[in-house]
C-alpha cells in the first residue's frame, strides 16, 4: 500500500502529481504579496461520468483551492451533482455509473485501488439538498459518525464542539435528547452539518443545501459557510446565482448540450473567480445564463 492512502484523522501528505504550472500572473501576485499561494485540495482533469451508456457530464477540469468556497452553478441536469459525487466516490454506490479522468485529492488519486472509500468519505463530508437527520436524538445524530469511527475523546465534547461549529449549540443544548426530526428545517440542516463536522472532515460538499429553506434559514447557513471556510474547504452546488455570488470565491458554470439521441450531456463552460463570472465572463453562454437569458 502506498503511504499516501487516505486514513481517518490524518490529511494525506501533499504529493502534487500532475499539478498544472502556476501562471505567470499568479506567480507575480504571490511575489508582490497581493495573494498568498493557494494549495490545491482537488485537482480534477478530463472528468467524465456515465450512467450506463449516457454520458452525464464530460470534459471537466478544475482545481478546488483550500479554504475557499467553490460554487457549481448551471441549469438543471447539467451534471453539477454528478461532478460533486465523483469527488468522494459516491458513484461507487450507483450501479452502472462510471467515472473516468483524473480526481486527485491532496495529490492522491481518489480512484486508486488502495484508497478506502469509507476512509475518504470521513475526510470529505457531504450535506444534501433535503435535511436528512436520522430518526434519533439530536445528540445521537451528531455522535453517530464519532461512534461508528470509534473516535478518541469524550463523546459529549465532540458533540458540543460540532454543534457549536454548526451554530446550533445554543438552540439545542437544553434538549439534546429530543428527536432531530423535531427541529425546524433550517435547524435540521445545521444538525446535518454538525453530523458531518463531528468526524472532523477536511472538505464539505454541499448539494443545494438551502433549496428547501426559507430566506432567514438560508442566510444562517451562508454565514456558517463563511465561518467554516476558515478551516475547511467547501464545494457548494446551488441553483441560486445570488447565493453563489454571496458565498463563493470561485465559480464553475456548467451547461448541457443535447446529443444525437436528444439526451443532455453536461459540460464545464467556465471556471473563474466568482466576481468575474458575474461581471465579466469569458464565455457568451456564461453571460447569457448569469444575465437570465436562459436556464
Ligand atoms: N443515478 C442516475 N442514473 C441515471 N442518470 C442519472 C443519474 N443521476 C443523474 N443522472 C442524469 O445525469 C445528468 C446530470 O444529472 P445531475 O448531475 O443530477 O444534474 P444537476 O445536479 O446539474 O441537476 C442528467 O441527465 C440526469 O438525468
Ligand atoms: Mg443536482
What are the salient characteristics of this protein?
Rossmann fold, 33% helix, binds magnesium ion, binds adenosine-5'-diphosphate, 10-stranded mixed sheet, alpha/beta, globular, 295 residues, disordered N terminus
Give a quick precis of the structure.
The chain has 11 helices and 10 strands. With 295 residues, it is of the alpha/beta class.
Chart the SSEs and their pairings.
Elements: H1 24-31, E1 40-51, E2 54-65, E3 69-73, H2 80-87, E4 97-105, E5 108-109, H3 117-123, E6 124-127, H4 138-148, H5 155-165, H6 169-172, H7 185-197, E7 203-207, H8 215-228, E8 233-237, H9 241-247, E9 250-258, E10 264-273, H10 274-279, H11 284-290
Parallel strand pairs: 2-10, 3-8, 3-9, 6-7, 7-8
Antiparallel strand pairs: 1-2, 1-4, 4-5, 9-10
Give an account of the 3D structure.
Strand 9 and strand 10 form a beta hairpin. The protein has one domain (4-116, 123-131, 201-290): P-loop containing nucleotide triphosphate hydrolases (Rossmann fold, 3-Layer(aba) Sandwich), CATH 3.40.50. With 295 residues, it is of the alpha/beta class. Residues 1-21 have low confidence and may be disordered. It is 33% helix and 25% strand. It has helices at residues 24-31, 80-87, 117-123, 138-148, 155-165, 169-172, 185-197, 215-228, 241-247, 274-279, 284-290, and strands spanning 40-51, 54-65, 69-73, 97-105, 108-109, 124-127, 203-207, 233-237, 250-258, 264-273. 40% of the residues are buried. The chain is built from eleven helices and ten strands. Strands 5-4-1-2-10-9-3-8-7-6 form a ten-stranded mixed β-sheet, sandwiched between helices. The longest helix is centred in the C-terminal third of the chain and has 14 residues, at 215-228. The chain starts with 23 loop residues before the first helix and ends in a 5-residue tail after the last helix.
Amino acid at each position: 500500500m502506498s503511504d499516501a492512502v487516505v486514513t481517518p484523522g490524518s490529511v494525506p501528505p501533499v504529493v502534487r502529481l500532475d499539478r498544472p504550472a502556476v501562471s505567470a500572473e499568479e506567480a507575480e501576485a504571490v511575489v508582490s504579496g497581493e495573494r498568498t499561494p493557494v494549495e490545491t485540495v482537488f485537482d480534477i482533469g478530463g472528468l467524465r461520468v456515465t450512467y450506463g451508456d449516457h454520458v452525464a457530464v464530460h470534459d471537466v477540469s478544475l482545481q478546488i483551492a483550500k479554504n475557499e468556497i467553490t460554487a457549481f452553478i448551471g441549469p438543471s441536469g447539467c451534471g453539477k451533482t454528478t461532478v460533486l459525487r465523483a469527488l468522494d466516490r459516491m458513484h461507487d454506490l450507483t450501479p452502472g455509473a462510471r467515472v473516468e479522468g483524473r480526481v486527485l485529492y491532496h495529490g492522491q488519486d481518489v480512484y486508486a485501488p488502495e484508497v478506502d472509500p469509507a476512509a475518504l468519505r470521513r475526510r470529505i463530508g457531504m450535506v444534501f439538498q433535503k435535511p436528512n437527520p436520522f430518526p434519533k436524538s439530536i445528540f445521537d445524530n451528531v455522535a453517530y459518525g464519532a461512534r461508528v469511527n470509534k473516535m478518541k475523546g469524550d463523546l459529549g465534547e465532540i458533540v458540543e464542539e460540532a454543534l457549536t461549529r454548526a451554530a446550533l449549540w445554543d438552540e439545542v443544548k437544553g434538549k439534546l435528547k429530543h428527536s432531530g426530526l423535531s427541529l425546524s428545517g433550517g435547524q435540521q440542516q445545521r444538525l446535518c452539518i454538525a453530523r458531518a463536522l463531528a468526524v472532523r472532515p477536511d472538505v464539505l460538499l454541499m448539494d443545494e443545501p438551502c433549496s428547501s429553506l426559507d430566506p432567514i434559514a438560508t442566510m444562517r447557513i451562508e454565514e456558517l459557510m463563511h465561518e467554516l471556510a476558515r478551516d475547511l474547504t467547501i464545494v457548494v452546488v446551488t441553483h441560486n446565482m445570488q447565493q453563489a455570488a454571496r458565498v463563493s470565491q470561485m465559480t464553475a458554470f456548467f451547461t448541457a448540450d443535447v446529443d444525437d439521441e436528444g439526451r443532455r450531456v453536461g459540460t464545464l463552460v467556465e471556471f473563474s473567480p466568482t466576481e468575474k463570472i458575474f461581471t465579466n465572463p469569458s464565455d457568451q453562454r456564461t453571460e447569457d445564463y448569469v444575465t437570465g437569458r436562459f436556464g
